[in-house]
Amino acid sequence: MHENTIRQEIIDTCLKMESLGINQGTSGNVSHRFGKGILITPSGIAYDQLTPEDIVYVPFADKHAPEGKHLPSSELDFHFDILKAKPEINCVLHNHSPHATSMAICGMDIPAHHYMVAAAGGHIIPCAEYATFGTPELSENILKALEGYTACLLANHGVVTTAQTLSKALWLAVEVENLARQYILASQIGTPTILSSEEMDVIVEKFKSYGLKEET
Predict the structure, then answer these.
(1) 75 counts as catalytic
(2) Catalytic residue from among 75, 129, 177, 199
(3) What CATH fold (topology level) applies to the domain 3-207?
């Protein structure tokens, strides 16, 4: 895609996150691989005020040399590190959706209470260990949690989803929030039944042809 198209798509994704209720204000951030670096939302600017020129380019050669009129998101480290470490994905989306973040505040993985948990690539949606926002330690914890997964929770913080396209990353973010909400509601009326590891193996395999493959 053309650079300006990607810049506008990043803004559109931010606005969709807000309209869907999975993010608000200046919280959360979005990035997209471009050329030999990444395009990422700037720090501290409300989504509805963003223009394509506000999106910051950061080269893989030096993340301390961003290009643009604003500073990149305070969460640059994990966006940069994920996209550099995972060439199979192009996009990273971070949000503070209420139900998924509530589980993250409790340091909980989302267990296999529903087969759609496999949409993130495995038997659970893992929760990365806590580290202060915007630090290399947080980035390290997220990369560890994402081993074998395309999404994870961040303890006491929020959610990260990854995909080849922003539309798929947003879809996955909404699904993670829905799964967290289901689990919380089920826990209020009883003890959720968790699918077995053997069943999740079957489901993960079925998902490979379920229509949830990355868009090309």
Answers:
(1) yes
(2) 75
(3) L-fuculose-1-phosphate Aldolase (3.40.225)
